[in-house]
Design brief:
Length: 211
């Protein structure tokens, strides 16, 4: 759980819009006895995490910097608990986090010669979209990183993939200008925008439960 702090997420409407979905994901993770680790920004404590997704008793947290998990004790936490799957969600869960979170999990995967790394990117990282150059660049970067990492670890039976959703109904796409929406809809054969919740993919793939 990355940076769900009152000091940053609490000031960003789009981040606040994700809190109900993150709460649901947390409930599924805890029900499945998954280990939950929180990343905290500088000068904060676990008490500063937004109440609805706050750590439960005994859940670990690491104080991270611009490079997220580098020089934190996340790797030791994963090793001690025998964790083989890492899901990174939050205000900073893009390229650098995908890399550092993957790196934290890879040692155990390589030792066992098996693992699965799944990133959530966007079709915009492949197609581009007017007015979203920075967003498209970050998503394209995740795809490139995943391709490179896949080549590095494939010989050890570890796969690295991205899920790239198309134009689905979310709080973010709801804020697009009408011309942007029309352009995206024109590229969909069915001509309509599907309603879908990304966290469902995570829950079903990783925890094997249907919300």
């Amino acid at each position: 759980m990355l940076d769900f702090m009152n000091q940053n997420c609490g000031k960003r409407p789009r981040c606040l819009d994700t809190i109900p979905a993150m709460k649901k994901l947390l409930e599924a993770a805890r029900a499945a006895k998954a280990t939950v680790v929180y990343s905290l920004i500088a000068n904060t404590t676990a008490a500063d995490v937004i109440k609805d997704v706050a750590p439960a008793a005994g859940e670990a947290s690491v104080l991270s910097g611009p490079d997220k998990f580098i020089k934190t004790d996340l790797e030791k936490i994963l090793k001690d608990k025998g964790i083989t799957t890492v899901i990174a969600v939050g205000t900073s869960s893009n390229g650098a986090v995908l890399y550092t979170a993957s790196g934290a999990a890879l040692r155990g995967m390589m030792k066992r010669r098996f693992g699965r790394i799944i990133g959530i990117t966007s079709v915009v990282g492949v197609t581009g979209n007017p007015g979203q150059a920075n967003y498209a660049a970050s998503k394209a970067g995740m795809i490139g990183l995943s391709k490179a990492l896949a080549r590095e670890v494939a010989s050890r039976s570890i796969t690295v993939n991205c899920i790239a959703p198309g134009f689905i109904e979310t709080a973010m796409t709801g804020g697009l200008a009408e011309k942007q929406k029309e352009s995206l809809l024109a590229a969909i054969p069915a001509g309509r925008q599907p309603v879908f919740e990304i966290q469902i993919i995570f829950i079903e793939l990783v925890f094997g439960v249907e919300p």
